[in-house]
Automatic annotation (TrEMBL), chains A, B, C:
Keywords: Apoplast, Secreted, Signal
Spans through the membrane: none
Protein name listed in UniProt: Dirigent protein
Subunit structure: Homodimer.
GO cellular component, one term: apoplast
Described function: Dirigent proteins impart stereoselectivity on the phenoxy radical-coupling reaction, yielding optically active lignans from two molecules of coniferyl alcohol in the biosynthesis of lignans, flavonolignans, and alkaloids and thus plays a central role in plant secondary metabolism.
């Protein structure tokens, strides 16, 4: 009986650290936090500097930095600073910025790889979430890893399910990001 | 006695989340999952577009994008989409693609930094593993971090021990990747 | 009583895996390991090859690889191999190298994104720590994620609080890095 408090703290810690809420039958794992965001990427094409939120900064030998390289953009590397909104309207008040890079990595189809952060700066959300992973663009939904977080998202881990919400030529696309955290420390 | 189920679920959760199997004496930690893969990188050199699986997309001021830059390739940044096989034969049926980037980061020796995903697409394996870390190429084995995963590798973490299985000039190399996961959620 | 050992091992595992030391009242979480390092970045500017520890390898259309691009360096991507010291003296004996890349990602202020490793190679420290995250340079302290580690830092996770300790024009800066690990497996 004397060690009952230890059991409680062990269980408390588990919930604190892992945020796991397995169902009583089966092992279905539910997120400890879920959120949906949109981010909006406007690529510099030589004529739209003021509006552009991203630019090509690396390209293969056959490419350049104002037009995608051909062969499904293979090798084009882009740095971005995109507004994040809570709905799919580019002109909604942003809750933060999606900042990072992506590059196209397949010659025979559209596919990318992403490394970026959500940097929140609104009254409701402070801190960052960090992401990395493969983005096979033409697949309807694709999962990347939430590899860490700071502030409100201190030490978070999870999965972000990405879908392309709009795509307009080479210049504009909008991604819907369904963030599911499975490790919540806050 | 009434809280016995809690103890069980605490222990169950620990094994579920951490996949830890410490030996009874000492604290040796064994992986919850181990796998070995090979991946094959054929660098674009200006003449081999059809076969190439990677290309230089960034280079320092003294470099270009069809030849390595000199000074141990310092600053050359490469995007790749390499076949993954279960043995060391480039022509074995691939189980997926290794997609990502690496760059050379030392002037006085060969050393690189890796950010990439294994994107599995065979019947036995679905999902991705995400990796990041330093790769001091001339060291026989070097460890990078498994920073997350999706699908069959949902929320995985671990270590990947990399060794250079073959190296042919500037155009072809093959890496052996020993993946050891220590956090298994599936 | 028969399952007492289970309780102990559950608690033991928790401490082993999470390194959590919550205070008895409240839920303040303290690191399982803390360290402070400095690293020193000397950017190649066309004239300082011998001393330079970093170089621009990607730039937007309006930039080049020997001068920052304007518009707060937006799009400039830099590869680095910087000495790590225990104090703020560039000439102190290094305990390892900070190797990775950063890029500037805002047009209207100075802001960067970092992906790098600390590669330790002194007698006291062996192994690596891997980092990723947003670095809003003008903020006094900013947090990035420790996304993994190897060797002495096997499977580590945590937060690194970065502050700019010195900044001299476009060529030299020094970062102070306060590493706080919250998951310690060693």
């Amino acid at each position: 009986m004397g060690d009952a408090p230890k059991h409680i703290s062990a269980i408390f810690l588990l919930v604190l650290v892992s945020g796991l809420v397995p169902s009583s039958h089966g092992h279905k794992i539910r997120p400890c936090k879920e959120m949906v965001f949109y981010f909006h990427d406007i690529l510099y094409n030589g004529k739209n500097f003021d509006n552009a939120t991203s630019a090509i900064v690396g390209a293969p030998a056959w490419g350049n930095r104002t037009h995608m390289a051909g062969f499904n953009n293979f090798g084009d590397m882009v740095v971005f600073d995109d507004p994040i909104t809570l709905d799919n309207n580019l002109h909604s008040p942003p809750v933060g910025r999606a900042q990072g890079f992506y590059f196209y990595d397949m010659k025979n189809t559209f596919s990318a790889w992403l490394g970026f952060s959500f940097v929140f700066n609104c009254t409701e959300l402070k801190g960052t979430l960090n992401f990395a992973g493969a983005d096979p663009i033409l697949v309807k939904t694709r999962d990347v890893s939430v590899i860490g977080g700071t502030g409100d998202f201190f030490m978070a881990r999870g999965i972000a399910t990405i879908s392309t919400d709009a795509f307009e030529g080479d210049v504009y696309f909008r991604l819907r990001v369904h963030v599911k955290l499975y490790e919540c420390w806050k």
